[in-house]
């Protein structure tokens, strides 16, 4: 194939991408650059068919970071915390315009889940290499994703929104405020009442929490009274919900990749049950603790969920699998590429 434009046209595309700004650093940036270069060489006979622009903080410059050395161009950005650089949406937008790139790749972390970024880029005619903001908002919120999972007939554990139902023929991407609010708990008394309905032990969870923050296990009403305010304090302003604890369960995940034409592929599964303080330590693949037919059900359910909101890009669907009953339950969806996705590279034999 002679050029990127011809390649795009041959596959029925409508916008060839000749240049990309990498709004990330470290492993994410290096892995992306190597992946694009490898694909470009195999497809076009040259590693530089796609022009790659990196962002470089003073800290990156000081250590001669690899992503700076192997990019086609780099732009110096302020140092310090990531809100000054890799998570600064306005800065990313300005650099994308100055360098005249066709697309921006956010990687994981930093600005990858900031809804402002895809919207701002879209206004400027620049492609965001990730999910649409509306899908990200729907599935990136734990409460919203549970509601969508229920509507898509993906099993969920008993939780404070189990009683909430979507009206027939509803648009699952946009959740009405009254439905969302009916799934939340706002006071200690409401949390206690919900825990009594779903049954102890239960989890008090912040919808915007993650990485071990905004989550507490409770066994009785007294513990709810003691811990509810802690969850609120760890993730200020976040909606709170209650979920039944799945005892003797494993944490299983399915990696998805989705295109804008409604095609959704499940790239196998992994077991992420070895954790400390709700943070994953060891991940194994493929899943061996569940029968092959159950793993297939996990993949089909994940694909059904993504299709229900017209998801585009990479996503991870997380489940809890009961070792006692063999049943599985939707936990949440991460609307981005996972930091440990490269384990799948080894299994798929693709970068």
In short:
This protein has about 350 residues and is of the alpha/beta class.
Describe the fold and architecture.
The structure is a single chain. The model has no long low-confidence stretch (mean pLDDT 90). A hairpin with a 5-residue loop joins strand 9 and strand 10. This protein is globular. A five-stranded parallel sheet has the order 3-2-1-4-5, with helices on both faces. It has a five-stranded antiparallel sheet with strand order 11-10-9-12-13. Strands 7-6-8 form a three-stranded antiparallel sheet. It has three domains: 4-129, Rossmann fold (3-Layer(aba) Sandwich); 137-156 and 247-348, D-amino Acid Aminotransferase, Chain A, domain 1, CATH 3.30.470.20; 177-244, ATP-grasp fold, A domain (Dna Ligase, domain 1, 2-Layer Sandwich), CATH 3.30.1490.20. The two termini are 21 Å apart. The chain has 13 helices and 13 strands. By secondary structure, the protein is of the alpha/beta class.
Describe how the helices and strands are arranged.
Layout: H1 4-10, E1 19-22, H2 26-44, E2 51-56, H3 58-62, H4 66-70, E3 73-76, H5 89-99, E4 103-105, H6 116-123, E5 127-128, H7 133-140, H8 142-151, H9 177-181, H10 188-198, E6 202-210, E7 213-218, H11 221-234, E8 240-244, E9 249-258, E10 264-276, E11 279-284, H12 292-308, E12 313-322, E13 328-334, H13 342-348
Parallel strand pairs: 1-2, 1-4, 2-3, 4-5
Antiparallel strand pairs: 6-7, 6-8, 9-10, 9-12, 10-11, 12-13
Helix pairs in contact: 5-6, 7-8, 10-11
Rounded to the nearest angstrom, the distance between the terminal CA atoms is 21 Å
**CATH topology tier name of the largest domain:** Rossmann fold
Please tell me what the overall shape is.
Answer: globular
Described by strand count, sense and barrel closure, the largest sheet is: 5 strands, parallel
Number of domains: 3
